[in-house]
TrEMBL record:
This is Transporter (NhaC family). GO terms for cellular component: plasma membrane. The lineage of its organism: Bacteria, Bacillati, Actinomycetota, Actinomycetes, Pseudonocardiales. It comes from Saccharothrix saharensis. PANTHER family: MALATE-2H(+)/NA(+)-LACTATE ANTIPORTER, MALATE-2H(+)_NA(+)-LACTATE ANTIPORTER. It is found in: Cell membrane. InterPro entries: Na/H_antiport_NhaC, Na/H_Antiport_NhaC-like_C, NhaC_Na-H+_Antiporter. The chain crosses the membrane at residues 20-38, 44-65, 77-98, 118-135, 147-171, 207-224, 244-263, 270-288, 339-359, 379-400, 455-476. The keyword Cell membrane applies. One of its GO terms (molecular function) is antiporter activity. Its main location: membrane. Belongs to the NhaC Na(+)/H(+) (TC 2.A.35) antiporter family. Residues 199-479 form the Na+/H+ antiporter NhaC-like C-terminal domain. It comes from the Bacteria.
Amino acid sequence: MTRPGSHRHVRAPSLVDATVPLVALVVLIGGSLALFGLDALDGPIQVALVLSAMVAALVVLKNGHHWDEVQAASQRALTSITSAVFILLAVGALIGAWNLSGTIPTLVYYGLQVLSPTWYYAATALICGIVAMSIGSSWTTSGTIGVGLVGIALMLGLSPGITAGAVISGAYLGDKLSPLSETTVLTAQLAGVDVHQHIKGQAWTSLPAFGLAFILFGLIGLFWGPAPTDAADTASELSALGDIYWISPVNLLPLVLLAVLSIRKAPASLALMASALFAGVLAVFTQHDVVRAFVADPGLDPVRTGIHAVWQALATGFSIDSGLADVDRLLSRGGMDSMLLTLWLIIGAVTFGTVLEEFGLIKRLIDPMIHAARSTGRLFLAVFATGFGLNVVAGDQYIALVLPSKVFRAEFARRGLAPTNLSRLAADSGTVTSPLVPWNSCGAFMSATLGVSTLLYLPFCFFNIASPLLSVVYGFTGFRIERTRQAQADA
């Protein structure tokens, strides 16, 4: 093909062309992890992703494309994450405002009194599953209830990594089975099935996977969980929270507002920001001492002190020096600026993935997989490898969800496999595995929001690991594999 106004010939990518950017990605990310360890997410991995995107661009240019085409693809990549950018900034603002207003401290205060350390991990997964199913968002669930549950775990001397794994397991169960979830609706639309039929099909992998996760979290808490902190330490932390804040159910009103807006299907970023602003205003009236101490400027009148406190909490987060390390670590968080490293990560990953997708490099890798998948089991394995691979390579769950649904739809139809099989498998492979990759938009969000490195919580995301594996096992065994009416008639 020839670009209008140009005599340059555009060549289709070879297998080597498709492989070179992936090798660059592996080498650069592996090198950054080897050199910087867990600190690699504070900049080195972002640099690796940007350099990998440049390698992909050089391959595209070598094949005859023009730089303005690469630029246009990059612009479309940035457009695709506009929603995620605003959600991330809103979550950062919300965490800062909820700490200022006492919403998160109140959740922790009541949680410390109610939740047993023995069953804490299992209870965390169940609570997040119920909340996410009610509001249809894994991100909102993790960024609100999840933050509080990780904070309670720190106070109880429990593992934040296991707790984060439980939060994510529950959040993604609810996200998958909720008709309010945008990824659930999108998956059903891409596969051409009714959303309720899609949810019914997903339940055959989601519920057993969550049941297994629930049992594992229960066993960890019962037999292998770390010993809880001394009762006196917990009492001192509760006392500190009570001394710093006016603890009351009134402080939970921002959470109630967020739940109402989410159930009424308000855009996530608007719902989060509305809750953050409401929390800030509430803090001015209910947390006078906290607001004054946070601003630390006696020369300001009460009105300007309140505005200064809310503005600063939204922008740079809330901070406090209570003298108790666990309390300070829990409360000194949030702000839009806390999400900037995460945004840098997402921009690099999605730009790299979009260049690979739009210029045919990913398709060049997938086509041989389709031809080699002779059996149903191998076809299911190919879909899983594609979905999870795109989460690693493209860094975005939507690419990992949309592309396999498009590429494999015709092949599923040709083999007489009902589209519900593909919709379930695409969700298990694309959506569920996304938080397991540190530079994926979902992995970066969960790490930044929960304050736990992806590599630390990954081994404990039992649901996110078991659900896609069950889908692949079903493909090889034939269990719950639905056929089209024509295929059934031919049989």
